[in-house]
Specification:
The complex is a heterodimer of chains A (565) and B (173).
Chain A lengths: L7 H8 L13 E12 L2 E2 L3 E2 L5 E4 L4 E6 L2 E7 L5 E8 L3 E7 L1 E4 L5 E7 L5 E6 L3 E2 L5 E7 L14 H20 L8 E5 L18 E3 L3 E4 L1 E2 L3 E2 L4 H16 L17 H18 L3 E6 L5 E6 L16 H12 L19 H9 L1 H4 L6 H11 L4 H10 L24 H7 L4 E3 L5 E7 L18 E7 L3 E2 L1 E6 L9 E8 L2 E6 L13 E4 L2 E2 L2 E9 L16 E8 L2
Parallel strand pairs in A: 1-13, 10-14, 14-16, 21-23
Antiparallel strand pairs in A: 1-4, 1-7, 2-3, 5-6, 5-8, 8-11, 8-12, 9-10, 10-11, 15-16, 17-18, 19-20, 22-31, 23-30, 24-29, 25-28, 25-31, 26-27, 26-30
Chain B lengths: L6 E7 L31 E7 L9 E9 L4 E9 L5 E3 L3 E6 L2 E10 L6 E10 L2 E10 L20 E5 L1 E6 L2
Antiparallel strand pairs in B: 2-3, 3-7, 4-8, 5-7, 6-7, 8-9
Classes of the chains: A alpha+beta (565), B mainly beta (173).
Chain lengths: 565, 173
């Protein structure tokens, strides 16, 4: 069983202003009330959208307006059952009801979510009722947003879509409020249009892919027979998870293509795992489903519980599938036996401790964001649960986490190019250390974890991390110099992480050859404050796609020097 | 030599919440300089395509589709559907290579109009008895159809889209 319980008190909170009307209306007025609903089309693993199983759902927490002569005279919010009520509508008056694709609450908690059409001037979607006369008695006016599905294709406007999107936001908010009852959610726009296609281009609607983009919001594809996401609740909640990560936590993720079985840069692995785990928590469904194709009849899906027979080929701290399973097992109250574990998952932390770690050490750590600061925070906060937490990490081939840096990890994956023995000569710790005034030799940027599915550019060990501590604040010089032998002229690049997500990039193109590795150098001199800093270094081409005009040159090693003049 | 522009000491914050941190020092900016936004989660089928040339009306266009699949994927199939079937001729996908978990097909299309829409390509298989698929969409719109991006509406009255509602009512006197 999954953790499906929600706070009744929070439901009441979200219910907000709707649903009154038991008192007598003032003279000359009548009560206008009703319910707002929408078609919810289930996304089913292996089947896609199953229109035959469409259910009518209440539109919860959305703004409802009473219009007179087309002008808003008053507004309210639907409650948890989609009901609204205007207690004092003028009698014998022509009015209409309009429902905005908007969830709005001021004060604390607060939120402001809207669904807009990005190919139509960011216009807000509304559900428009027709004009009626209020008469002299109470009026019930129900509005329903239909899917527009005509049996084999969409044959009518897809009125339900914006409300299906907001329905996910409603559930996501409820989950967060269980942990942070006074959360103030920054404004968020969902950009959805039937013209939104999964194509990167310049034509209207060519959004590339569904995604969260910090300066824009959440973009969602909507092109029928290609890819639609308005009923793919996990997809929406996954992107909402990234929105939460951006505003309430922190992500140092480098992004890029990724597949479940890939051995990824640890920052990307955790960020994507968080999105999918949050999706399962918010929707109450552990099976992630993403539908697409003609008639929306195909799907990609996975079970976060990795059951019943799933064998993850690449478990570890660098693997999205491992980390999402870990996060979900920490949360849920299912007594399953995770693959690779000999112990039943008896841990059911719920969302509160997970949110605390996510918005605590995960946000403030001087380390890079990964599973390590998250689990470290969890273990510090839950000392009595440490054996069970360790059991869950171990089941994903993550050794017991004892700090935010993954110190002591022994699993460095399965290289896809050279042998494990060869690779572990170069890569056997997550963070190397260098003292100010010293040189660390042979820090190697690799392409040994290239994925057959998604290439090389953001995979494990393409970017390497070196820690150093500043005790004497001031200008420091960081030098990264290539070492022979080289496969090709090297281009070392450096990102200096200063904590709290702030970083400095140094990526001057060098002028050097294979025969002059010492000239393949990156050097810069930032002024640093006291405390720990992290150097992220990589051979630039190893962060390129395989089909790039300058593809990865593979193993390239560097010497790293930090000096304080 | 590398192809990119030199960017020395460009600062970034990959993803951070502005109110949480002090203003960065001089020379350090908060621009997300190297963020490649991740796409949706993907599974056991990796899909790439290559279009031989820019689409042009009346000119056959070869689209090579390559699927890389994990070993557990069984019964791979491909289908292609045009969003504007009256504006494009689509040949059935022809297998070019198959084996070693890599499959390639060629699909030839002939745009019949400038606005030829999109071609949706789906590769599907089964994993543990469950259908799994991956799709890509290819633009078939000719260069001539690619006008300037319309400017967003400026400030003014709130723009609204009125979607039709199914209404039911009850008046009680």
């Amino acid at each position: 069983m999954l953790r499906l319980s929600v706070s009744v008190a929070l439901i009441a909170l979200l219910a907000g202003c709707g649903g009154s009307g038991s008192s007598s209306p003032a003279p000359g007025t009548v009560v206008v009330s009703g319910q707002v609903t929408f078609d919810k089309v289930p996304a089913v693993a292996g089947q896609g959208l199953v229109y035959a199983q469409t259910v009518v759902q209440p539109a919860r927490g959305v703004t409802v307006e009473l219009l007179q002569a087309g002008v808003v005279s008053t507004s309210t919010t639907t409650d948890a059952t989609g009901n609204y009520s205007f207690a004092s509508a003028p009698e014998n008056t022509d009015v209409s009801i309009r429902v905005r694709a908007e969830m709005l609450r001021v004060g604390l908690p607060s939120w402001n979510f809207r669904v807009v059409d990005n190919v139509n001037g960011e216009a807000l979607y509304t559900l428009a009722g027709t004009v009626f006369n209020t008469g002299t008695g109470a009026v019930t006016r129900n509005l329903h947003a239909a899917s527009g599905w005509g049996g084999t294709s969409y044959t009518a406007p897809r009125s339900a879509a914006p409300f299906a999107i907001l329905d996910v936001a409603y559930d996501a908010v409820q989950l967060v409020l269980t942990a942070e009852p006074l959360a103030a959610f920054p404004a968020l726009r969902f950009h959805w249009s039937p013209a939104n296609v999964p194509v990167s281009g310049t034509a209207p609607g060519e959004i590339g892919s569904t995604r969260f983009q910090p300066d824009v919001g959440i973009l969602l594809v909507g092109a029928a027979d290609q890819d639609t996401d308005e009923y793919d609740r996990h997809v929406i909640a996954h992107e909402f998870g990234h929105y939460l990560e951006y505003h309430f936590s922190r992500s140092d993720s480098i992004g890029g293509p990724h597949a479940l079985t890939d051995q990824l840069d640890m920052r990307l692995a955790f960020g994507e795992a968080w999105g999918s785990a949050f999706a399962a928590m918010a929707t109450g469904q552990r099976v992630y489903v993403d539908t697409h194709s003609a008639a929306q009849a195909h799907a990609f899906s996975f079970d976060l519980e990795q059951s019943p027979s799933r064998v993850n080929p690449n478990p570890g701290w660098f693997n999205e599938e491992s980390l999402q399973a870990l996060l979900f097992d920490l949360y849920d109250n299912g007594r399953d036996v995770p693959p690779g574990s000999f112990v039943v998952d008896d841990l059911a932390l719920g969302f509160g401790p997970i949110w605390a770690a996510f918005t605590g050490e995960q946000r403030t750590t001087r380390a890079l964001t990964s599973v390590f600061p998250f689990v470290d925070a969890l273990k510090i906060a839950r000392p009595t649960d440490v054996p069970l937490i360790d059991n869950l990490t171990t089941s994903q081939r993550i050794a017991a986490v004892n700090d935010a840096y993954g110190t002591g990890q022994t699993n460095f994956g399965i290289p896809t190019k050279r042998t494990l023995l060869e690779v572990t000569q170069d890569f056997n710790t997550i963070y190397d250390n260098v003292a100010v005034g010293a040189t660390l030799q042979n820090v190697c940027s690799l392409d040994d974890y290239t994925s057959a599915l998604t290439g090389a550019e953001n995979k494990l060990a393409s970017r390497r991390f070196v820690r150093f501590t500043v005790t004497n604040p001031g200008q420091h010089t960081i030098t990264v110099r290539a070492r022979a032998p080289l496969n090709a002229p090297a281009d070392p690049d450096v990102i200096l992480h200063r904590g709290n997500g702030l970083a400095i990039v140094s990526e001057t193109p060098p002028s050097c050859t294979v025969q002059t590795p010492a000239a393949c150098v990156e050097q810069f001199s930032p002024t640093l404050t006291a405390g720990e800093h992290i150097i992220e270094l990589y051979e630039w081409s190893n962060t390129n796609a395989l089909d790039d005009t300058q593809p990865p040159i593979g193993r390239t090693c560097f010497d790293v020097t930090v000096t304080r003049p | 030599m590398t192809k990119r522009t030199a960017t020395a000491l460009v600062a970034l914050s990959v993803v951070w919440s502005a109110p949480l941190f002090a203003a960065p020092p001089a020379g350090e900016h908060a621009a997300p300089a190297r963020v490649t936004l991740p796409g949706k989660p993907t599974g056991p089928i990796g899909l790439e395509y290559h279009v031989a040339a820019a689409p042009a009306v009346g000119v056959p266009l070869a689209i090579d589709v390559s699927a890389r699949v994990e070993a557990e994927v069984q019964g791979l199939s491909i289908e292609a559907n045009a969003s504007a079937p009256h504006a494009v001729l689509v040949s059935p996908p022809a297998v070019v290579t198959a084996g070693d978990d890599v499959y390639t097909w060629r699909i030839t299309v002939v745009p019949l109009a400038v606005e030829a829409g999109y071609l949706s390509i789906i590769v599907a298989g089964r994993v543990d008895g469950l259908a799994q698929s991956r799709g890509v969409t290819v633009s078939l719109r000719s260069e001539a159809a690619r006008g300037p991006v319309p400017a967003a509406q400026g400030a003014g009255p709130e723009a609204l889209i009125a979607l039709p509602a199914q209404e039911s009512s009850l008046n009680r006197r």
